[in-house]
Every structure is written in structure tokens, then in C-alpha cells.
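Annex B. Sample input.
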Amino acid sequence: MKNLNLLVVEGNIQKENDNFRKNGIQTHAESLKDSLEYYTKDLNIEVFNPCSEKTFDKILPNINKFDGLIWGGSSLNIYNDCIEIRRQISFMKECFKNIKKILAICWGMQVAVTAAGGAVKKSTNGAHIGIANDIEINENGANHPLYISKKRKFNSPAFNFDEVVTLPEGAVHLASNKINRVQSIHFKSGVSDIWGLQYHPEITYHKMITLIKFRKDRLINDRKCFKDEKEIHNHINFIEEEIKVSEKNSRMIELKNWLNSLKAVA
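Annex B, continued. Sample output.
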């Protein structure tokens, strides 16, 4: 079996990644690489950040070499119009023309949905801060290769304030929870077959706790998710209890299933 060629797209702007590194936090692309390599080392991974590139000339001439694309998280909100977001939507449309298999995670799913004609808005039922509880796979999901060997109801690392409100044409809805009706989907656009997740199987709960501490002031003063540091401390304690019962293979099995879907056609 030949090595799989994967393109990992970094969704954060460079300033946010610099802040991550300054505080000892992996970028989302780095987290993705670690999680993928847990399952197999037979990967050739390239990372691309469309926010930082005025043109896509570095990647587009050879984009057909990639067996698959994974597009990860970001602290951006898709409805806030700025050049970095426009570049990402534009690059996703280019990927739809060239890459057959796409795994779009959280922000990645929101970009993919927007590029394919769907819509994303601020969630009306609250936010996921480090964890999503009681994600439930529906009948479509139960029969989908994304969820082979996954429990029908599960918790997952997650960090999002927004949700998909309009699916792209022909999209199949796979899972929900009380915060986001759309927790996962499957749809096609151009030559691409897209599996989308609103949660983060590739990010550990430990990193989520670090992100909560890193974003503490924003979560209290800007996002209004917590009244004070005591509430944040209690929420972190709740996530730490989940760590005690969480099992790595089960938490990340969506990555394994997606990689297996690539190997089947590579």
C-alpha cells in the first residue's frame, strides 16, 4: 500500500497560531497530524493556510496529487466578512474541483457548507466550550461508514459558538445534540465527497482545557459564556471527569474510519 498524500488546511489566522505557540498550545494542524499518525505513519502530510496566501499558486498546480483533505478548526466566525474568511471559502471551492475525499471538522465543515451554498449562523442554543455532550447518531448515521463501531450516543471534545442552519443541496444529516441539530453530515460538491463534523475527535480534552484557560477573559467578557472564573473552574472540573472515562480509540474513531475510506480507493 502506498503512502497516502494528505492536505491539512489550517483555519486560524497566523496571529492566532502565534498566540497558541507563545502559550505552549499546538496549532490545530499540529493536533491533526498527531492524531492521524496515531493510526498510521504511512502518510505524506502537507499543511496549507489559505489565510496567509494572497494566491493559491503554491498548492493548486499539484493539488490533484492529494488522496484526501482534512480541514480543521478556527477561532473565526464564518458570518464575519473579512479577507481571511473569503480566501478560505474561495480555496474550499477550488478543493471541490480537485480533491475527491474531504473531512471537514468544525470550522472546516462551516466553510464547506458555506462554499456549497448552505448557511451557518450563531447558535441559538448556546455554545460548546471544550466538550459536546450526548451527540446522538440518527438512522442515516448508523448506516454510514463515518460511524463504524461508534456508540450511538457519545460525548466529544468540541469548541464552537456557531451552527449549520441550512444544509447544502443533497446533504445527508447524520447526528445531533441539544446544542447543534447538525453535528455531522455527508454531502457532495463538484468531485468531492465531504464528511463534516461539528465536533473535534482529533483534539484531546487536555488541549480543550488549555484553550479554555487561554480564552478565559474572552469567554467571560466577550462571549458571556461564564459569569466568572469560578464557573470556568467548575466547567474544567466537569471536563476532567470526562477524561477519566473517555477512551482514545473510541473518541477518534471517525478519523480511523475516514482514513480507511481513503485506503479503499487509493
